[in-house]
What does this fold into?
Amino acid sequence: MKSQSTLLGNMNDPVPMLMSKIWVFLSLSYIFCDVLTNMEMSVLRMLFEGNITGIPMTQGFLLFAGLSLQIPFLMVILATILPYRVNRITNIAAAILMIIYQLVSFFMGSDITLHYVYFSAVEILGNAAIVVLALRWKKVV
It folds into this structure.
């Protein structure tokens, strides 16, 4: 019954619902940035060759990429069901990890393009918003 009361408590608290919505927004942003990037002729050529600027597209690399994209998808759900303390810590950790992941991506992969800079800025700001929300979040009693 405790998990049911946690879920009901989170539904009465606007912060977990807002964080979940931001995670949805971020998930879509990550996907659409990748879709647009894969429309670039230079990226298409590299994909057909099996590597992006020297990074081989191995099963392991693709698994890592898939796992990293699961983080925001999973946070959509976890932000609404985890208890207060664990929820705050998990949201902060996941958002910081995604900020680091985004910053590192500037030094790997294809050339930096205008759409990539735009999406990266939006994604970093969205993750920073989650960190700020989680840090300022006070438990509803």
User: Anything to note?
Assistant: Residues 18 and 54 are 39 Å apart (CA to CA). The chain has one domain: 2-136. The longest strand covers residues 51-52.
